[in-house]
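Quarterly update from the structural biology core.
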Amino acid sequence: MKTGIITTDTYLQHDTGQGHPERADRVTAVIDHLKKVKSKNLIWKKPTKFDLKYLEFAHDKDYLNNVTKSFPKQGLNFLDGDTIVSPGSKDATKDAVGSILTAIDGVMKKDFNNAFCAVRPPGHHAEKQKAMGFCVYNNVAVGAYYLLEKYKLKKVAIIDFDVHHGNGTQDIFYDNEKVLYVSSHQYPYYPGSGAANEKGNKDNVLNVPLNAGTQPHEFLNAYESIFKKLKTFKPEFILLSAGFDAHKDDPLAQINLESKDYYTLTKRILTLAKELCGGKVVSILEGGYDLNALRESVDYHVKSLIEFQ
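Predicted structure, tokenized:
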């Protein structure tokens, strides 16, 4: 079996302004590098159009209407202090969501074994009614609802290893026993949520807060509690909010992972996924703001996805 790489050109048109950390170069660096990987096991795909009703599962209608109206005809528009949209963001935000849905379809149809979506803007900070933290639509949340609604799955797990807590994803699923949200993140840190006592109203949230300065072995050991929770939950599909900003070189956080640690983490997740859900895994890019660290880390992540067949 193969690994799908789902990406798009429209990410280039999502302009966040000069000096913004969430910029087009992030995805370009990743894609350009992956294109050099000479593997017959990589299948490249573009996102397909999708029914916009899936956005309404994750976000309020009023919020979606406001976002649609917020895309400017020219220049930039601020949805919050650091979440910026431009005319090209309209297509880029939809294609980011479309990528995870296309990846899910590919795994469910067995076109490929697993997939990585190289997209922007990221999504895990976007709440039901609020854009924040560079995120407009919550890509991974829409993906989870897609699995529940289109494929009638009963249990979906989201593992978020971005260095920042995915407050949006937690917000969207806090009352939903069908979705397990687990997150490892630096704490206390942006956006302020993600304390260990935030467990979801159905005991369906597990937060693993990490101190600034956490070393690789401490980070990887912290996943024991996450894997234990996954084994109890028994998901039928696992989605990864794959942020690579827990890297020691990342300018936006203070966790000390090396690029190769993402290979180890991914391999461990896939080993468990094989046991729990036949290896059905789709990963989508969240954060990662040092271009070299991001390129290397994604390379290790995708290498692990390819090898685990």
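The chain has a mean pLDDT of 98.
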